[in-house]
# Entry
Amino acid sequence: SSATPSGRYDVLGGSYTLRAPVIGRNSVFPTDFKNYSSATDSWNFAPFNYLLTPSERYGAFLNFKQALSDNVNFRTKLIYTHRHSQTQAAFLPLFVGPDAGNGNLLDTISIDATNPYNPFGVTLSSGADGTPANYSTIRRRFVEGGQRVFTQDVDTFSATAGFDGSFHVGDHKWYWDVNGVYGLNDAHQLFTGNVNAANLARALGPVANCTGACVPFNIFGGATIGGAGSITPEMLRYVTFDQRDKSLQQLWDFTANVSGELFDLPAGAVGVAFGYEHRDQYASYDPDPIIVAGLGADVPTSPAAGGFNVDEIYGELRVPILKDVPFFNRLEVDGAVRHSNYSSFGSNTTFTASGLWKPVADVLLRGGFAESLRAPSIGELYAGPSRFDATIDDPCTSAPGGSFQSNATVRANCIA
# Structure
């Protein structure tokens, strides 16, 4: 990574890093700096990430069934799970400047000449105020703030209750059931040590504006892993915050089903099943207000909430045609239809048809046709704006290893 504990400073037309961490005094340019080399000065963050995520789970389960009569049963099932887990990542990489690519206030930060720790003697302007930009990006690992820790607490609960039974129509037995389900998933995440971009901008800006709780920020001194750094605890307290996000998902579901045999054919009984389902789904996502305002070090996200309900009816039919005759050890056809009515986008009907043929006992041929419906999810319907950072390769770049260098045709086309 180019975000190193010693920093990378793409400023004033050059790309620099510290020769060694400068702690206990202000860094001096150019004495304490050298040209940055990606080959020798990049930093390997992988050893500081968890390979295995610690997780604690607690759960409770209840399953109960009671016969109310010879043909009617009551069933209920309760499930509860609590998960506490923690993910650890390398120290926060801070990117500020017009080419940082954060998509938030961090891209507009200018470092004022009056900042007591600015070693370059001039204001490093992002260009956001109309003055020409004279720096591209400053990168720095927040080693002093400790590793990034993400803590999740998730509660999941579901309750199911229903009745089932059977009855006879003539010589044929039929089965029925009705069920109600409630489900809940409540998740909370804590990110310890994110950056408040508004406070950072103030701490790096004109020192006359850094009053009250504001502490001028030293991004130019570097740090050692496990040791001291130029960012003091007072500086950290002002520019960092604990990010708290939460999400909620809820489900209510009711189903009623009946299945049985209509009548007998020479090859067997004609089977049928039909039923009804009503389902309500709701979800919400509430990111930390600082993130919503676009003032964190991550991509800005927006709160979202919404839901939908659906009513569905279905029917299925199985018809045995031939059985135990020459070339037709078994022949049957099946069909099904489902009609869905969504509050979010309207109605739709899907069909399924299939056939099965066994010319002899050991050979089976099956074919079918089916339609399906994928309704839009709550996230697709109600999620707020998001950002996707696409990777774009320029074939005409002159960077080593690019197509411009290795492919004569590409090079000729680019020059043309």
The first helix runs from residue 38 to 41. The chain has a mean pLDDT of 93. Residues 8-301 form one domain.
